[in-house]
Amino acid sequence: MDEGRRLPKRPWDSCREVPVIKDERTPWKMIKLLKIISLSVVAVSVFGFALCSKASFLLLITLSNEGTKTLPAEQKPVALLCIGCAIIASSVFLFVKSLWKACHKTSKMPDKRTVAVVLFFEFLVAMGAAILTIVAMPHLDIVTNVTILNGVAVLSALLQVITQCTAKERNRFLVPSITAFLLILLGYVLFLVLYIMKDPTDTKTIIWVGLAVGGSFLVSFNWWENYFRLISENSSSVFLKALCRDVKTCQNMLHILSSMLRIAVTAGVLGAYVPLDKMDWDIVTSIPSRETKMIAIIIGVQLISSPLCHWFSVVACKMHALRRCFILPLYLASLAVMVLFVVPVIVYHQDYRTSLNGTAISFTGYCNEVVDGRNQNLNGSVFPGLVLDVTHTLCFLDMSKTFDICMLTGSAVCWWLGLVLATLHLWFLSLYRIQRTQDLFMGPYEGGFLEQSLLLNARFDIQTTEKRKKNFKPLDSVKVFLCATMWHETYSEMMNIIISIFRLDRYRPKKEGETSDVIFEGHIYFDDAFRDVPGSQGRHVNEYAEMLVDILREVYSIFLDIDGDVFKRQQQVPDQKIVTTPYGGRLVFTMPHGNSLTVHYKDKTLIRHKKRWSQVMYLYYLLGWKVATKYFKKWEEGEGEVELEHDFEREKHNTYILALDGDTDFQPAAVMLLIDRLKLYPLVGAACGRIHPTGSGPLVWYQKFEYAIGHWLHKTAEHVFGCVLCSPGCFSLFRAAALMDNNVMKRYTTKASKARQHIQYDQGEDRWLCTLLLKRGWRVEFNAASDAYTNAPEDFKEFYNQRRRWGPSTMANIVDLLGSATLMSQRNPSISRVYMLYQLFNLAASILAPSTVILMIAGSFTVMLNIDPSVALVLAVIPPAIFLGISFKIKADTQIFISAIMSILYAFVMMSSAIAIIGNMVKEQTILNPSSLFIIALACFYVTTAILHPQEIGLVCYGFLYIICIPSAYLLLSIYSMVNMNNVSWGTRETAPAAGAAQLKAAAPQTKAQKAISTITQFFSRGKCCRKLCPTGEELILSQDFQTVETADPEPQPQNSIVEDVRQPEVEQSFSQGPVFSCPNQSWITQLQSLSDDMRLREDTLDEDEGQFFRDLMTKYLEPLPEDKQKQKEMSDDLKDLRNKMCFIFFICNAFWLVVTFTLQILDTSIFIRLPKLDINLDSTGDYIYIDPVGFMFILSFALLVLIQFIGMLGHRIYTLIHYVAFMDTETMSDHQKQQQTLKQITDKESDDLDDFMFPSVRRRNPGDGSLV
């Protein structure tokens, strides 16, 4: 018998129930196509804009030639002026950019010696560029002008040789650099021989040729910094090292000085050359319109195409498409320009020869008779004249002589090949997945010689034959703590989070003796996991905790056997550990691929419970105990303080915490995309992903569109123009250095002792944590490619209670930030005063949302009922006013019941209004009225936004539901949230039954009112709980995010502060009666050990030092809050008082807005804006549209807000695409994944469906895998 074969424990039970563990939500084919299209567009754009930039610049030089006739001789200064503008355009852009950075960010003043050296080189470059392009090139032929710019690589090639020689290693690109230098020199020799030997007595030609050679040599100093950086690393010169360090740290100030110098030098050369060449500047003000239009088009193309080519080149590099989208298009651009200029010359020459019917004519004769003998034609097409002007530059050569052609072609080929060899190293350039622009390109682009500046500006690295990446240092390995908080999640929700964690384990396996770029360690913090069981030795875990153990065993067995065949599948899960701890207990799992997962069961009688305190617990345990304590112990043992401090800071920056909720579902790629942001941007303290609500029913459909709009527009605008204000705790990555900063983690432990603090601290703890990070200067980002999924509330009551908690907490945190706007704009480089003004406008829009909805409803009444607007406004105000008045006297459940009825009625009103508006457009044959324009513009805006998010374009179908629910979401919900602001209970999942567990005691019989509420809310519900994304609560159209909360019939008391909250009686009763155990004296350990013999839990002990840490932590921060009825009542009164004040301010603002509008309507048309009414043919109908000034300004402000967010969304879309394409091209495959690729070739589709649960881009390196939007 084969010893390797062993009969399974239960061979008859080999069939399994396997949950969905692969990524089924990502449209792979669409993303593959999108990547191909994106790279193609970038490559074509780089080539096309480089071609336009070079061609337009050479046209300007051709027009400034003294023998060309398209532009008369007296108008040549205009062309020279345009050449000067093209040269200094990049310097102007750099000056403005650096000046803005110097004003809004920290900028250091460089050393005087550094300034002198930098300005010396910049003077040489500016002088050389001006002499070459303004003075010399207008006197050269077009072929030389196209290719002589390639000769500016001469000094770069020489510096490459010097740099590689100083490295004292065998360099694989030393020979190409030497060859490039020699070829460029040969090109100059051939050029000199051609021009000087043509007429050795022509002094002017010799001067122009000498200036051309000297100017191009001076320009080649432009890229000295790219090589001095490496030379200084291998040099013992202190001055050289200090120079390079100073240049890097004082870049803004140096750019300001160098840009000003370049502009001044270019202006000086241009201003001196024109009169010296006997030209007059006065002609600039009197140039004819035809020439003005021609010159304007050429210089416009040059000034626009140059920065666009530079931007697309950066995009190509960041997409890791250097070869096919950057290097190759730029190489071909010079050749294409040559073809573009030379081919028309040949065609026109051949056409003329054909027209002579066989009469022989030389090229010189053609030049004398046709090119130089033509008259200036002021009418007709410009193109023939430009072709003949280009031909004129070649007329001094005898193109019928082989010598002239060979010399001209030889110099052009030598220069082009020299540039190719000098930039050959770029084909092997190593890049990080996210590469910052300043690390890609050492300086700004040059508009006059665009492709040369882009290629030579790209970072030069020494690449040896033994090791290609000598100067490419890999990023430090990072450690990620996955921290999920749980309470009463259902079976499917727990399954989602556990499968996600095990996916990560398989994605980045932990192997002994091997290092990985990312190390994962999972932690689950289970709140209120214990209960009393009569007759037992101790407290038992509840059924939710038991269910978690069952799920862990089930998922473990699935991932343990996922790669095995049917006979090698194991039914026995390896033994795991169970430990008693000061806060309750823990389970310690070693996952199948080596990473650890710890489940912390918290006993609320021993340690403070609720989500924020679980976060405090894992922050101090993982960062304080596991990270910080070991360095203090090393310091106590006598290790060097400087080295310890450096290592401590480095580990804090390379340690991350991934905050999760108990039902979050995510793929490994989503985590890696967040890690990328923190890895390469040291000021990013947190990054969040795109949260997708899941579920079914009309309420979930509404939330899907609401979430989409919030992420598409609001979060992207925050990311682009400032910082994201809330990184939701359901799926966010935090940097340890940011959390451990002063006034962050420590202040996060503050107990709420005031009414305002209850609202800000405990009702939106994720947003408050981000507020603390922003105040310390850290940046919070949003990554739209990082997808996470979470269950959304399907019950109307739970949905309203979510927003009841989020709305006030959002406003409290935004008001806190606005109150310290000046300090934040100084401390946080990502936040400006303009951005804080944007947030102020958002807050104002959020406050005025109820009155805006009332005005919209009044407009609907006016359209449908054809009544006076003032009467319609009164009718629209009455229902919400009555609801507001009675809400202070009735219970919360009754308020929700009334809100549900009113929501349905308002939905019918909105739907009828939309139909009426469409009917009016058909009836009046016009769309040019405010209502029609608003509806059409809003629809077009949402559709356009959805098209830019192709994966989620289907969510547009829910847009109509979102529109008709606006009164419910922004009017009724606002009233409910403000009136119940004093209700600070959390309440999530207290009544949710555990799926798959023993049935709880039946609830008490419902009252008639409760039955009625249940009947109404059945339209929306199927009774799940959820909580997720932090609220935004901003403008009318852009929605606030959401998170689930509870509502108790009796008014709950404050929690997480002075006293413990009061649990609902039926819930407490259901948990106090546990199941009857066969062994009445067993403990929670034996309880869990008895659940299954497929996974044995072996009891272990906690380290004494760690146990003491937890006891100290609980004593200082996490002791259970004592119950004090007196303080509880005082806090309840304070919360009511705060509620009354805030309600008065909130609703008085809305009342003021309504009164102003009502007054303007009563005053009729005397102070209205009157606009003519147009029909569908844009002809006046004789009628007028009257718009009150206040309403017009509001609509204008809203349009401006939407435009700002749309622009931000476009920018964020582009950079999300760049990051995602780079991720797909750079993520490596593990050995296991490579093995799966091989197995896939011999397995059938069914087995492949089981194995292919991972993120496919990593498994197969297909370009279209992952989740883009």
Automatic annotation (TrEMBL):
<dbReference type="Pfam" id="PF03142">
    <property type="entry name" value="Chitin_synth_2"/>
</dbReference>
<keyword id="KW-1133">Transmembrane helix</keyword>
<feature type="transmembrane region" description="Helical">
    <location>
        <begin position="326"/>
        <end position="348"/>
    </location>
</feature>
<dbReference type="InterPro" id="IPR004835">
    <property type="entry name" value="Chitin_synth"/>
</dbReference>
<feature type="transmembrane region" description="Helical">
    <location>
        <begin position="960"/>
        <end position="979"/>
    </location>
</feature>
<feature type="transmembrane region" description="Helical">
    <location>
        <begin position="77"/>
        <end position="96"/>
    </location>
</feature>
<dbReference type="GO" id="GO:0016020">
    <property type="term" value="C:membrane"/>
</dbReference>
<dbReference type="GO" id="GO:0004100">
    <property type="term" value="F:chitin synthase activity"/>
</dbReference>
<dbReference type="GO" id="GO:0006031">
    <property type="term" value="P:chitin biosynthetic process"/>
</dbReference>
<feature type="transmembrane region" description="Helical">
    <location>
        <begin position="836"/>
        <end position="858"/>
    </location>
</feature>
<feature type="transmembrane region" description="Helical">
    <location>
        <begin position="206"/>
        <end position="224"/>
    </location>
</feature>
<dbReference type="InterPro" id="IPR029044">
    <property type="entry name" value="Nucleotide-diphossugar_trans"/>
</dbReference>
<keyword id="KW-0472">Membrane</keyword>
<feature type="transmembrane region" description="Helical">
    <location>
        <begin position="142"/>
        <end position="161"/>
    </location>
</feature>
<protein>
    <recommendedName>
        <fullName>chitin synthase</fullName>
        <ecNumber>2.4.1.16</ecNumber>
    </recommendedName>
</protein>
<keyword id="KW-0328">Glycosyltransferase</keyword>
<feature type="transmembrane region" description="Helical">
    <location>
        <begin position="1189"/>
        <end position="1210"/>
    </location>
</feature>
<feature type="transmembrane region" description="Helical">
    <location>
        <begin position="117"/>
        <end position="136"/>
    </location>
</feature>
<keyword id="KW-0808">Transferase</keyword>
<keyword id="KW-0812">Transmembrane</keyword>
<feature type="transmembrane region" description="Helical">
    <location>
        <begin position="931"/>
        <end position="948"/>
    </location>
</feature>
<feature type="transmembrane region" description="Helical">
    <location>
        <begin position="254"/>
        <end position="274"/>
    </location>
</feature>
<feature type="transmembrane region" description="Helical">
    <location>
        <begin position="896"/>
        <end position="919"/>
    </location>
</feature>
<feature type="transmembrane region" description="Helical">
    <location>
        <begin position="173"/>
        <end position="194"/>
    </location>
</feature>
<feature type="transmembrane region" description="Helical">
    <location>
        <begin position="294"/>
        <end position="314"/>
    </location>
</feature>
<feature type="transmembrane region" description="Helical">
    <location>
        <begin position="33"/>
        <end position="57"/>
    </location>
</feature>
<feature type="transmembrane region" description="Helical">
    <location>
        <begin position="407"/>
        <end position="432"/>
    </location>
</feature>
<feature type="transmembrane region" description="Helical">
    <location>
        <begin position="1144"/>
        <end position="1169"/>
    </location>
</feature>
<dbReference type="GO" id="GO:0071944">
    <property type="term" value="C:cell periphery"/>
</dbReference>
